[in-house]
Amino acid sequence: xxxxxxxxxxxxxxxxxxxxxxxxxxxxxxxxxxxxxxxxxxxxxxxxxxxxxxxxxxxxxxxxxxxxxxxxxxxxxxxxxxxxxxxxxxxxxxxxxxxxxxxxxxxxxxxxxxxxxxxxxxxxxxxxxxxxxxxxxxxxxxxxxxxxxxxxxxxxxxxxxxxxxxxxxxxxxxxxxxxxxxxxxxxxxxxxxxxxxxxxxxxxxxxxxxxxxxxxxxxxxxxxxxx
Amino acid sequence: xxxxxxxxxxxxxxxxxxxxxxxxxxxxxxxxxxxxxxxxxxxxxxxxxxxxxxxxxxxxxxxxxxxxxxxxxxxxxxxxxxxxxxxxxxxxxxxxxxxxxxxxxxxxxxxxxxxxxxxxxxxxxxxxxxxxxxxx
Lengths: 227, 136
Hints:
Chain A: Residues 57-220 form the Thioredoxin domain. Chain A: Belongs to the SCO1/2 family. The complex is a heterodimer. In chain A, 43% of the residues lie in helices and 22% in strands. Chain A is α/β, with parallel strands linked by helices. The longest helix of chain A has 32 residues, at 2-33. Chain A is globular, with a radius of gyration of 21 Å. Chain B is mostly helical. Chain B has one domain (28-130): Orthogonal Bundle (Cytochrome Bc1 Complex, Chain D, domain 2). Helices cover 51% and strands 6% of the residues of chain B. Chain B has seven helices and two strands; from the N terminus they run H-H-H-H-H-E-E-H-H. Chain B has helices spanning 2-26, 29-37, 39-42, 61-64, 69-75, 99-110, 122-130; strands at 80-83, 86-89. In chain B, strands 1-2 form a two-stranded antiparallel sheet. The longest helix of chain B is centred in the first third of the chain and has 25 residues, at 2-26. Chain B is globular. Chain B starts with a helix and ends in a 6-residue tail after the last helix. Chains A and B meet through helix 2 and helix 3 of A and loops of B.
């Protein structure tokens, strides 16, 4: 009796697995053709009256306005990324743990989109008191990067932590179901409307491969969308 | 009474696992130590990070500063250095490892990542560690 139960349980499990695997396959297949990226974070329905009819618009979570200073002492704001796709992360120059790995991975993104003016990288220092413009300048020079493409940001500590929450919070909402949490080593992919469209573990090569492949999906999206 | 017995069993089990672990891990200890303490900065392949963190792979520094390496691992280093013709200047934290661990770690580095340098003996490393420059 118990043995039989066992077997049926096993076959049941196997069938379940097969079903799961096949959906996973399907998911991949249909995805590769005209894949669109999800929009992360909370959304709010907003009612609006057009020609006497009520329509419901969805307001998506987006990164609020910001103002930081980069390695060349230039002010970097939402204007800097206006109409562009950008990748953002958080680090500090004296970090001994995951940051060197993140920076070596971000360099790959940099190399891949070096010549595309519609892609920008923003790395925020979470230790802005130590990471002054001069420190960031030295760091950036040693990485051999161009400021106009990859801004290393410093500024008011509170503002940096507040904006970090805006990235993190949205990603976290999405992962809630899996009980996962967002790494501080994440890269965030932001679209032309400053909505979060992806987050990737910045220390994992495979995840960063995915990021590099996802960026064109947002770049082409811009052409289809009528503003 | 019963509890004592349980503790004994647990302790024996613990001793046994640590012992077997010692045997199986001894050979790879250098690699394990590298992954644990060094890889985050010097990278999986010892390539370092551009002008920020110097490479260990094919690094001339490993040969030219062979005698200084045990102390560098234990006490870290800072200031400007040249590795393979490139200048680096960033602080590296030290790791307070035992002499035998440092020996295994250094031998791993000296014979991997494209390096083919002579190995250290434990006595050699112990002697070098005794004469580390005073810490600042």
